[in-house]
Amino acid sequence: xxxxxxxxxxxxxxxxxxxxxxxxxxxxxxxxxxxxxxxxxxxxxxxxxxxxxxxxxxxxxxxxxxxxxxxxxxxxxxxxxxxxxxxxxxxxxxxxxxxxxxxxxxxxxxxxxxxxxxxxxxxxxxxxxxxxxxxxxxxxxxxxxxxxxxxxxxxxxxxxxxxxxxxxxxxxxxxxxxxxxxxxxxxxxxxxxxxxxxxxxxxxxxxxxxxxxxxxxxxxxxxxxxxxxxxxxxxxxxxxxxxx
Length: 244
Known about the structure:
Layout (H helix, E strand, L loop, with lengths): L2 H38 L1 H7 L13 H25 L2 H27 L1 H19 L4 H14 L14 H6 L16 H7 L4 H11 L1 H31 L1
Helix pairs in contact: 1-2, 1-3, 1-10, 3-4, 4-10
């Protein structure tokens, strides 16, 4: 290619890099704002987006998840956009490094999720079960999230009804949540809960993920492709700056 064509190609890729990362930056700001909103006023958020409460995100704290993802996207978007605009090799290399670290972490997480499902269940049990015992029936937002989740997904607790043993809810009402008995009785005791044999939410969500594995795999592959393309473009700009 002639020097003019090379310069035109460089300028085009630079502009695309700026626009792409500007979109990432704005998306990160939006997610960060929503995360702060959920943290400050979770009840109104659930009233608007209650239908989404059956998703896997309800197993963890949605507000912190959105804040962390939003902050990461803000950093990535800023490094990519500002680095391309200022033609800064330092910022472009930082952008490349951050995206590479995230890509490696995603691959590692996917491998762990596929190979160590039992370990994931153990870790979640250690984190979520104590929260169910302490917060269910005490924290209105937490209780509402789990009530909607258990109702929509037709599940009980994380593993089963025994997650509520020695919990605030059981000690106060002397029964398990009605979802643990299939919502057919007002007072759900251990005998009825054992007979109903309602699955835990982890198993139900895992089943749902396996059912939609193709869609999840396609989304994951698309995200991975975007990350690889972003790294390739940033490295191209980085290398071309040496020739300018």
